[in-house]
Amino acid sequence: MTGSSVPPPVTAVMDAASAWLPARMAVVEDRLGELAGAYGPRLGEEAEATLRAGGKRLRPILVLMAARDGGGERAIRAATAIELLHMATLVHDDVLDGAPVRRGRPTVVARSGRERAVGVGDLLLSRAFAELADGGAGAEVAELSSASVALALGELAQRSDAYDTSITEERYLKRCTLKTARLFESACRLGRLAAGGPGTENLASFGREIGLAFQLLDDVLDVTGPPERTGKARGTDLLDGTVTLPLIIARRLDPELEAVELRDLDQDRAEEICDRIAATAALDQVRDRAREGIERAKGIIASEDFSDEERQLLSMIADGVVERYS
Fold it and tell me: At 102, which helix (H) or strand (E)?
């Protein structure tokens, strides 16, 4: 894995880490490429294109860091598996949303249709579990299965809540915990399972906190854009009927937003609503909550369960979640 192949803050973490971490991440990247392109010209090409579209690789890095330098092959398999699962969920999400673009590139469903996109997502999902099962890692399979159930429950909750502007902050946060934070938590658990060692619950809590902050800030970015940065149209969540915390707070601050019917929005109107949300203090409030979560995460890793290098690198990852959206 070269420094140019991943975005900051991951590059900074790779540069600061001992040699074993970038070396193992390079093995994971190679393994992802092998698995994604190994299933023929139809599904394989689409899976490989999904991989080439890039990504932050935060989840596999967390697996490797949680495993420490003694994780070996089991940690590499777990890191590969969690990124495959993440890729699968993105492809399936794009099918459900009918999304034309992700990370600035046409989605699988836009390029090749619904049936092939579903097949690609299924392929990536099955390969994630096969990667763990081939290594005989029963505990890791159970953990990834639990995370997958949480992802599905979160997606079902989001679909159930679609276009409902009356949902509460509590409901929104529960949904985010299931759909996003749980996989960050699982990355930390998988690494510790692969190598053993103290601090599993503390590290899992760290992952949950940064995962939730990640989602909060991603929802801010959907409002602020711009598309060349996010890789998708501004206000995509509004057009999908996905009610996020910026809108929930903004409706309290600007009573006129309470009358907005999400089903009636087109792209121009969605951008107008984004402007209205941005004109309130809602985005700053959401950013503040995300930063508070990052500070809680950094407080968790201050315990004696973590080495000085772990604290440094995990803090860099936590800070990088905020820096990416600043």
Answer: strand 101-102
DSSP characters over 207-264:
HHHHHHHHHHHHHHHHHH--HHHHSS-TTHHHHHT---HHHHHHHHH-GGGGG--GGG
Neighbours of 6 (CB within 10 A): 22
Per-residue pLDDT reduced to its tens digit, 276-300: 999 999 999 999 999 999 999 999 9
Q: What is the pTM of this model?
A: 0.90
- Under CATH, domain 3-325 is a member of which superfamily? Farnesyl Diphosphate Synthase (1.10.600.10)
Confirm if 154 and 179 have CB atoms less than 8 A apart. Answer: yes
Which amino acid would we find at residue 305?
A: D
Assign 45 to helix, strand or coil. Answer: helix
The residue with greater pLDDT, 1 or 12, is 12
For residue range 141-184, what is the model confidence (pLDDT) as tens digits?
999 999 999 999 999 999 999 999 999 999 999 999 999 999 99
Q: Convert 89-112 to b/e letters by CB count within 10 Å (16 or more is b).
A: bbbbbbbebebebbeeeebbbeeb
The DSSP secondary-structure symbol of 306 reads: S
Give the Cα separation of 136 and 294 in Å (integer). Answer: 35
Report the alpha-carbon distance of residue 256 to residue 149 in Å, rounded.
Answer: 38
Q: Where are the domains of the chain?
A: 3-325
Task: Assign 179 to helix, strand or coil.
Answer: helix
Residue 54's pLDDT is what? 65
